[in-house]
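Figure 6 in text form: structure in, sequence out.
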C-alpha cells in the first residue's frame, strides 16, 4: 500500500470538517464554536490531523493561525472529500427510498409562510413519515448551521455572506424573485394610484428595516438608481410594525409582495413603475442534493414557486437588487 492510500485511509472526517471550519471562520475559536467543541479540543484535533497526514498544516501568525502550503492543499481536497461523503450518504439513503427520517430547513421570516410551510406541506402529503423542522435564521447563522449539519436547507436572499454559485462547500438553486411595492398612508397623495415612479417619493420620509440588511440596501439601491438617497427616519424589523408606522403617516416603505402581509385599513399599496426585487434561492451542502429528503424538499420549493408565484410584472427594470446585500425578513 503506497503512502497516498495510507493517508486517505487514516484521515478522520470530523477533523476534516474542523479544517474546513477553520478555513471558513478564520480562527480556531470560531471554528470550535461552529462545531460545538472547546477550543482546546479543536487544537488537539487539528494537531492530530497534522500527524495523520504527516505534515504541518498551520503556523502561528501573531495571534492567529495561518495555513501552510500543505494545509491549503489539504483544504482543497477536504472540500471534495466531504462533498463525496455527502453524496455517498445521500445515495445510501436513496436506496432505502428516503421515506423516513427528517430534515431541518431554515429561512428568513417572510419565506416561512410563503415558501417553507407550503413546501413542507407538499412533502408531508407525499411522504407522511418524513419529519420537516422549520427555523427562522439569518444568512450567516444559517450557513454556519448548514456547515455543521444542524440545517439541511437554507432559503435566503442575496447577501454579502452568501455563497456564490462557484463556492466549494455549498451549492445554491434559484427560487425566483420577490417584487417590492410601496406602502403609503391612505392620506398620501399617491394612495389612489395603481403605479407611481419611485422618483416621485424623493422628498418623503421612509420607514426601513435594520440598517444595512437586505431590504434596507435594496431600498437605498433602488432610490439611488433613480437619482436620490432615501431619508430613513424610522426602522423596525417586524413588517407589521413597519406598516403601522406607515399608517400613522410617519413615512413610506418598500414591502415584499410575496409576503402576503395583512395590510392595515389605513395603508394603501402602490406598485412602483420600476422593477424592485430581491433574488431568492435555496442553499445546501455540496453533494447533499442526492439525499432523497433534501431532494424532495427542493423539488417542493420549486413547485410552490411555479404554482403560487406568478411572473413579476413591471414597466421598467432598475438594477436595485444588490447581489451583496444582507438578509432580512
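Output sequence:
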Amino acid at each position: 500500500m503506497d503512502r497516498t492510500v495510507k493517508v486517505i485511509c487514516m484521515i478522520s472526517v470530523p477533523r476534516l470538517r474542523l479544517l474546513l471550519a477553520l478555513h471558513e471562520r478564520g480562527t480556531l475559536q470560531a471554528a470550535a464554536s461552529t462545531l460545538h467543541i472547546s477550543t482546546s479540543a479543536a487544537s488537539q484535533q487539528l494537531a492530530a490531523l497534522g500527524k495523520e497526514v504527516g505534515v504541518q498544516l498551520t503556523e502561528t501568525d501573531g495571534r492567529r493561525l495561518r495555513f501552510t502550503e500543505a494545509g491549503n492543499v489539504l483544504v482543497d481536497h477536504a472540500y471534495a472529500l466531504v462533498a463525496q461523503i455527502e453524496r455517498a450518504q445521500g445515495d445510501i439513503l436513496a436506496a432505502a427510498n428516503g421515506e423516513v427520517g427528517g430534515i431541518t430547513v431554515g429561512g428568513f421570516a417572510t419565506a416561512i409562510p410563503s415558501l417553507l410551510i407550503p413546501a413542507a406541506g407538499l412533502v408531508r402529503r407525499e411522504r407522511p413519515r418524513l419529519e420537516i423542522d422549520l427555523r427562522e435564521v439569518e444568512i450567516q447563522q444559517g450557513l454556519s448551521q448548514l456547515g455543521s449539519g444542524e440545517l439541511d436547507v437554507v432559503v435566503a436572499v442575496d447577501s454579502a455572506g452568501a455563497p456564490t454559485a462557484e463556492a466549494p462547500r455549498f451549492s445554491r438553486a434559484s427560487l425566483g424573485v420577490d417584487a417590492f411595492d410601496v406602502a403609503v398612508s391612505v392620506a398620501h397623495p399617491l394612495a389612489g394610484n395603481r403605479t407611481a415612479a419611485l422618483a416621485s417619493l424623493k422628498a418623503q420620509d421612509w420607514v426601513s428595516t435594520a440598517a444595512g440588511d437586505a431590504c434596507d440596501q435594496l431600498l437605498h439601491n433602488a432610490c439611488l438608481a433613480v437619482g436620490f438617497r432615501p431619508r430613513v427616519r424610522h426602522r423596525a424589523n417586524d413588517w407589521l410594525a413597519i406598516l403601522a408606522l406607515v399608517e400613522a403617516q410617519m413615512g413610506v416603505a418598500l414591502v415584499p409582495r410575496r409576503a402576503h402581509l395583512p395590510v392595515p385599513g389605513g395603508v394603501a399599496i402602490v406598485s412602483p413603475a420600476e422593477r424592485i426585487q430581491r433574488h431568492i434561492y435555496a442553499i445546501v451542502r455540496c453533494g447533499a442534493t442526492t439525499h432523497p429528503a433534501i431532494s424532495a424538499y427542493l423539488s417542493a420549493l420549486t413547485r410552490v414557486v411555479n404554482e403560487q408565484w406568478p411572473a413579476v410584472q413591471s414597466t421598467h427594470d432598475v438594477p436595485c437588487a444588490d447581489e451583496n446585500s444582507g438578509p432580512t425578513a
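Caption detail: The radius of gyration is 23 Å.
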